[in-house]
Design a protein that fits this description.
The complex is a heterotrimer.
Chain A (H helix, E strand, L loop, with lengths): L15 H37 L5 H5 L12 H32 L4 H13 L4 H15 L6 H26 L2 H9 L4 H30 L2 H6 L19 H9 L4 H40 L1
Helix pairs in contact in A: 1-11, 3-6, 3-8, 3-10, 4-6, 5-6, 6-8, 7-8, 8-11, 10-11
Chain B lengths: L3 H34 L2 H32 L3 H34 L10 H22 L2 H31 L4 H33 L11
Helix pairs in contact in B: 1-2, 1-3, 1-4, 2-3, 3-6, 4-5, 4-6, 5-6
Chain C lengths: L22 H7 L10 E12 L2 E12 L3 E5 L6 H7 L10 E9 L2 E2 L7 H7 E4 L10 H11 L6 H11 L3 H4 L12 H13 L5 E5 L7 H14 L4 E5 L3 H7 L2 E7 L5 E8 H6 L4 H7 L5
Parallel strand pairs in C: 3-8, 3-9, 6-7, 7-8
Antiparallel strand pairs in C: 1-2, 1-4, 4-5, 9-10
Classes of the chains: A mainly alpha, B mainly alpha, C alpha/beta.
Chain lengths: 300, 221, 291
């Protein structure tokens, strides 16, 4: 057995200068990239805020749309969005969570499961206008729901289902299998284990996924345009079969008008939409941090 | 081979036992020399050198202790160390018997022998052979040789019988020789005990190899 | 005075021969056989197990004695954990597992088609390698098993008894509402033991229960195992030979041969297996001269 000649000190000749320059350059490029993207965002937000904020007042929030910019408001859009999203979540959450539980906890590994799994992931990436066409065909025409809140809600439910399923599966996967083992080893059944241990632990994660899915749906315009949500609605929807509009469509409508005042109104609508989205995302982040907190304690 | 350090420790331990065995063997040899040559300075040297034997025993005890604590030996390794622990104790006692003979030689001063030394040197030779054979069996991990050591003990016992009866006869014939005869009897007794302890070492060899604890002690004394 | 032949000194430094006595010597001197386990709780007969196409256990037969601690030892991948998980059908949770042979608990084959694995797992509890308390209160951790198994007695009393048996009561009695995760690693593992015995099992399986613990916590668990053995039958898988030697009454040594199939090599009383193993492979493994 022959030992290799040990390296001597003189064999190490690090080019400290070069290394420092390269390192500095790398950091520089990164900082510039961040500044560019952040700068664009700040510019957009500032522009929208400066144009829109003066228009936001009680009247703006409580009025219907109007041909006159001073009298126009977003009441119908807010009511439509809230009504539609409530129904969307009511439909998609139970179905999505149950599907995720089945796929994650019960389904045996097979080609069929992999096939379904891949397709769900793919569906999450399908352009939203495709869902709109689907909703138009099935809900509006075939099931004769018309261009109603219900049709919109069901279309949106289709859109967010894959997202909810994937996010819920993710949350279930994050529950350590040692917890399942512990419960099963005590003589618990699979459903007892899921109900008592897996779901409670996955709950914040599932909620986060749902909020993010909902915030995606709130910002969507294309599918609702496709199924024919109205652009001018001087009333709030009372029943699921009423016609309706939502915030993004209202904004879209105003931006397409020739008068500059309506463009500022659109900016005001964007500010409101952004606030709603920011609020929802903050809640999601808070929930996620709570999950992270418990898992860190679990390791420690 | 894995655990090279441990293996080396066991090898050193075995060598230590052989070193000590050789030391004790030399003590027995010199004890006989001092008796035959009535060499009191040599007898005094034997008594002094027994301290060295005792020190060696404690040293080997410590080696065993650290192997036990540091290496957590199992199975044959564990048996080996346990055997060595009692072997060195036997060797140390054999050294004491050699020292005992030396003390008797000092006690006898220049008192004339009551009979020529015939059987006692034979006992010494036989006992030393048993010691050597026991250690040989230990090194070879040879159970059959170890059992042979146990058998050889009867030879020493027979010789002791002869010495005992010869001396008894002399004492009966001439009571004035009782003290001198008793001295020789002690010498013979010490040699007989040395042979017994060689048998004990052979027993530990069997334990080292097989894990069995045989009773070889067929000694009549 | 000269001695015949060589002197003792000549033997010095002679290479120690490999401590592998010949088979003849062994056959003539083996310790008395006492491998018959009287009145076993678990009797495993000719057990084979496959993960998909890969065989993991081959022809394992052994009987686990009642109210004793039995240790399963062997190098990684020898199938000892797999064997342990056959005793409460935890292996069922792994896809594509196939089992052949029988595992009888109190005379009933738990792999019979009429047996519900859920019921088996109440009778044969399990403690895992990493402490895995539920992220709930100490009380709820212990009470959960009893609750789902339809326990009708006094729950407070049951929780206290289980925690006492697990030697944890004195440390937690003032704060049963505290999260199980707030305990130290050793306490968490004792909580898991309390949780397992709260459903009154016959057997408690422990899969390397101390591998994530420090020496003091380990010592407490080991003491606990000896105490629990007065009421329960305990089977422990461990990589720590000293631990197996300290806590178990009987030890089984398993080894995967070149075909990677785990088999039982030797099974016997712990003190005998560790001082005088009968199989060369056991000897090589426990003296650390393996491979």
């Amino acid at each position: 057995m022959s030992m290799q000649t040990p390296a001597t000190q003189s064999m190490f000749q690090p080019n400290q200068m070069m290394r420092r320059v390269m390192g500095g350059a790398f950091v520089g490029v990164g900082v510039i990239s961040i500044l560019i993207s952040l700068g664009m965002l700040v510019y957009l937000v500032l522009d929208v805020a400066m144009r829109g904020l003066p228009w936001i007042d009680w009247q703006f929030l409580t009025s219907f749309d109007s041909r006159f910019a001073e009298r126009a408001g977003i009441l119908a859009a807010i009511a439509g969005t809230a009504f539609m999203m409530t129904m969307t979540i009511a439909v998609s959450l139970p179905i999505g969570v149950m599907a995720a539980i089945y796929l994650q906890e019960y389904a045996k590994e097979s080609w069929l499961k992999s096939f379904i799994q891949i397709n769900i992931s793919n569906l999450a990436g399908v352009p939203s206008i495709i869902y709109g066409l689907l909703g138009l065909t099935i809900f509006v025409r075939y099931m004769m729901m018309g261009r109603s809140v219900l049709a919109g809600a069901l279309t949106m439910a289709l859109l967010v289902l894959p997202v909810i399923v994937v996010a819920t599966q993710e949350a279930l996967r994050a529950v350590p299998s040692s917890i399942r083992d512990a419960s099963l080893a005590l003589g618990a059944t699979r459903s007892q284990t899921i109900w008592h241990h897996v779901l409670p632990q996955a709950f914040p994660g599932i909620l986060t996924g749902n909020i993010l899915a909902a915030s995606r749906a709130i910002g969507e315009t294309a599918p609702l345009v496709t199924i024919g949500a109205l652009t001018y609605v001087p009333f709030t929807p009372e029943s699921p079969l009423d016609r309706f509009t939502v915030l993004p469509i209202q904004i879209f409508n105003w931006t397409s008008k020739p008068q500059a005042e309506f463009h500022d109104l659109a900016a005001a609508g964007i500010v409101v939409l952004l606030l709603v989205l920011l609020t929802m995302n903050s809640i999601a982040i808070l929930l996620r941090q709570r999950v992270g907190g418990t898992s860190r304690r679990r390791i420690g | 081979m894995p655990r090279e350090q441990f293996q080396k420790g066991l090898q050193d331990l075995q060598d230590g036992v052989l070193e000590m065995g050789s030391m004790v063997d030399r003590q027995i040899e010199r004890a006989l020399q001092s008796l035959v040559g009535r060499d009191i300075p040599l007898a005094e040297a034997i008594v002094r050198d027994d301290d060295e034997v005792n020190r060696t025993r404690f040293h080997l005890d410590n080696v065993c202790l650290s192997l036990l604590t540091q290496q957590a030996p199992m199975a044959s390794d564990l048996r080996l160390i346990i055997s060595v622990l009692s072997m060195v104790s036997e060797l140390e006692r054999m050294g004491d018997h050699a020292e005992g003979i030396g003390r008797i030689v000092i006690l006898m001063q220049d008192e004339p022998l009551v009979k020529p030394l015939v059987d006692i040197p034979k006992m010494a030779t036989e006992a030393r052979r048993m010691l050597k054979d026991a250690l040989d069996a230990f090194v070879q991990r040879d159970v059959n040789s170890a059992y042979a050591v146990g058998q050889a003990d009867t030879v020493v016992d027979d010789l002791y019988d002869t010495v005992y009866h010869d001396l008894l006869e002399i004492m009966v014939r001439d009571p004035s020789t009782v003290e001198s005869c008793t001295h020789l009897l002690w010498v013979a007794h010490n040699l007989e005990r040395i042979a017994d302890r060689a048998t004990n070492i052979a027993e530990r060899v069997v334990f080292t190899v097989t894990g069995m604890m045989p009773q070889m002690d067929v000694s009549r004394y | 005075m000269t001695m015949t032949g060589q002197s003792i000194r000549d033997m010095l430094g002679r290479r120690m021969i490999e401590l592998r006595p010949s088979v003849e010597v062994r056959a003539g001197s083996a310790l008395p056989e006492n491998d018959v386990v009287e009145d076993p709780v678990i009797r495993i007969s000719d057990l084979n197990l496959w993960y998909g196409k890969k065989q993991a256990l081959g022809g394992v037969s052994l009987s686990i004695p009642r109210k004793k601690v039995t240790a399963l030892i062997g190098p990684s991948g020898c199938g000892k954990s797999t064997l342990l998980r056959c005793m409460n059908r935890m292996n069922d949770l792994i896809p594509n597992v196939r089992v052949q042979g029988s595992v009888e608990i109190e005379g009933a084959n738990i792999y019979a088609s009429t047996i519900d694995p859920v019921e088996v797992r109440r009778v044969v509890g399990m403690v895992f390698q990493k402490p895995n308390p539920f992220p709930k209160s100490i009380y709820e951790n212990v009470a959960f098993g009893a609750r789902i198994n339809g326990y009708k007695g006094d729950m407070d009393e049951l929780v206290e008894q289980a925690l006492r048996q697990a030697a944890l009561w004195d440390e937690v009695k003032d704060d049963l509402k505290k999260s199980g995760l707030a305990l130290s690693g050793g306490q968490q593992q004792r909580l898991c033991i309390a949780r397992a015995i709260a459903v009154n099992p016959d057997v408690v399986l422990m899969d390397e229960p101390c591998s994530a613990l420090d020496p003091i916590a380990t010592q407490r668990i080991e003491d606990l195992m000896r105490e629990l053995a007065e009421r329960y039958t305990i089977v422990i898988v461990t990589h720590n030979l000293q631990q197996a030697a300290r806590v178990s009454d009987r030890t089984a040594f398993m080894l995967a041969a070149d075909d990677l199939v785990g088999r039982l090599v030797e099974y016997g009383a712990t003190d005998q297996l560790f001082t005088n193993p009968k199989d060369e492979r056991t000897e090589a493994y426990i003296t650390g001269r393996f491979g």
